[in-house]
Amino acid sequence: MKSIILRELFWIILSFVISLILGFVFLELLELTSTDRSLKRIEKVFSVQLYIIGCIVSFVSVYIVRIIFAAIRMFVRK
User: Fold this and answer.
1) pLDDT 10s digit of each residue in the chain, 78 long?
2) Non-local CB neighbours of 61 within 8 Å, separated by 6+ positions
3) What is the spatial distance between Cα 70 and Cα 64, in angstroms, rounded to a whole number?
4) Is 31 left (phi over 0), alpha (psi -120 to 50) or beta?
5) Does residue 78 sit in helix, strand or coil?
6) What is the pLDDT of residue 32?
7) Which of 14, 30, 43, 62 is deepest in the core (most CB within 10 A)?
8) How far apart are CA 20 and CA 76, in angstroms?
């Protein structure tokens, strides 16, 4: 039981780290951030909100892919 909890904790942390990186990719793909050096306050807030949304979407996506691969591995072993 302890090993299962540690494995899931590892995957949650790994998914979180990957989602931080993919959050930037999300922003670059949408190209909604401003290229100006000086951003208005509302643009800064908007950029942070987009980054947070990108991180959440990436976290959920990474964890869903992890669960799918675990299910496939379980079916292949049987």
Assistant:
1) 888 899 889 988 988 899 889 888 888 887 766 666 777 888 778 888 888 988 899 899 988 998 899 899 999 987
2) 22
3) 10
4) left
5) coil
6) 66
7) 62
8) 32
pTM for this prediction: 0.75
Please say whether the dihedral angle defined by the alpha carbons of residues 30, 31, 37 and 38, taken in this order, is positive or negative: negative
Residue with tokens 């899931």: 8
Length of the chain, please? 78
CB 58 within 8 Å of CB 18:
yes
Helix ranges (DSSP H) in the chain? 2-30, 41-77
